[in-house]
Amino acid sequence: MTDAEMGDRKAVVLRVLVEEYVRTGEPVGSETIAERTALGVSSATIRNEMAALEELGYLSHPHTSAGRIPTDLGYRYYVDSLPTGGKLRDTQRRAISEFYAEAMLDMEEILKGTTQLLSRLTQYAGLAVAPSAADEHVLRVELVELGSALLVLVVGELGRVDKQVVDRPEGMKAPEVASIGRRLTEVFSGMELRDATARAQQMAREAHGGERDLLSAVAVTLAQMQQATRTDHVLVGGVANLAGEAAQWRRETVRRLFEALERESEMLRLLRESPAELSVTIGAEDPATEQWEAAIVAAPYRSGENSLGTIGVVGPTRMDYLGVMTAVQAVAKRVSELATALGI
Q1: Domains of the chain and any CATH numbers
Q2: Which secondary structure element, helix H or strand E, spans residue 260, and what is its range?
Q3: Contact yes or no for 114/126 (Cβ under 8 A)
């Protein structure tokens, strides 16, 4: 329903009621709305508008209160009427700039930090889905000198980094280590992980002495990366913030949400279904969020034009939607810039 179809006055009443309820958590009465607006009408007229909004399904009326609260439909109307391109607070802008100024080369490390950042920015729980790695390819294999040891470093094209420290083969000099490292990158670059693992195992069987030990370590590292990338999962940060919201929700609802975060399947589905720019799923709009009495705000991140995964925030339906949407979009933009810069 558009503002014209609803009526400008009802639209103002609904907007102010949602914002006041989000701010206080208490049912909102007509006197409060009269004080917060310049409608120039009496409290009785506003009560009539609120009663009409309740009949339309946008508000509900708790039995123990004279005030009203938004329904999921009311939140949806409010979200759809919000301006695009909200502005970050200065503290939020600084927090984002400072976090992403740190050097990070592993996409999973970036995403784990991003969930914590989103949680700090919004006071809800941050979510992230890493790039699908079912067919991830090897970007490069490196051997790094660590004195009496060597670091085997395998970098995937989606930004994942796996490493293993191994004893330096006896008698193996730095030029030989460098030569083997170059050969490994030449052999494995562009290979799918499963093929690279099989090839490294074959090379180890055919090698001798210290080189065999080194190739065996490379094969083990590739196998570990392959194992770790078989299942997509949701990264979650700031779950304690949801416990802090428990006063807004029934205890049973909080328990179900925590269980859902552990199961992941429903959360993965919701995050993967995020559309081109921004997705807001509110309560009854999805069976999962209806059960949790929750809302999810999500946005994709990209490398160039290629969509890689999704970040988002989960919290109560009584959410600061404009603030959360602004933060999620800003963070998704920065993650996209990092992914593009890393060539993922």
Answers
A1: 3-80 (1.10.10.10), 90-132+232-341 (3.30.450.40), 138-228 (3.30.390.10)
A2: helix 251-263
A3: yes
End-to-end distance of the chain based on CA atoms, in angstroms?
42
Neighbours of 57 (CB within 10 A): 12
Q: Hey, is 334 helix, strand or coil? A: helix
3-state secondary structure of 282: strand
Instruction: List the one residue out of 160, 151, 211 whose CA is nearest residue 183.
Output: 211
Q: Give the predicted TM-score (pTM) of the model.
A: 0.72
Q: Closest by alpha carbon to 263, among 233, 228, 298?
A: 233
What type of residue is 202? Q
- Residue-wise pLDDT for 197-223, tens only, equals 888 889 888 888 878 888 888 888 878
Can you tell me the distance from the alpha carbon of 229 to that of 18, in angstroms, rounded to the nearest whole number?
42
Backbone angles phi and psi of 137, in degrees to 5: -105, 155
- Report the run of H or E that residue 25 belongs to, with start and end: none
Long-range contacts of 336-340 (CB under 8 A, 24+ apart): 336/301, 336/302, 336/303, 338/100, 338/104, 338/110, 339/107, 339/110, 339/159, 339/301, 339/302, 339/303, 339/308, 340/302, 340/303, 340/304
Helix 107-122 vs helix 321-341: angle between axes, to the nearest 10 degrees?
Answer: 160
Name the nearest CA neighbour of 183 among 141, 146, 212: 141
Q: How far apart are CA 105 and CA 313, in angstroms?
A: 24
CA atoms in the 13 A half-sphere facing the CB of 199:
15
The CB density around residue 339, as the number of other CB atoms within 10 Å, is 23
Tokens at residue 285, please?
């709009």
Residue type, 74: G
| 232: confidence class by pLDDT, cuts 50, 70, 90 | low
Query: Structure tokens of 197?
Result: 């693992």
d(CA 222, CA 322) in angstroms, rounded, equals 43
Measured distance CA(163)–CA(185) in Å, rounded: 15
Give the model's confidence band at 250: pLDDT under 50 very low, under 70 low, under 90 confident, else very high.
low
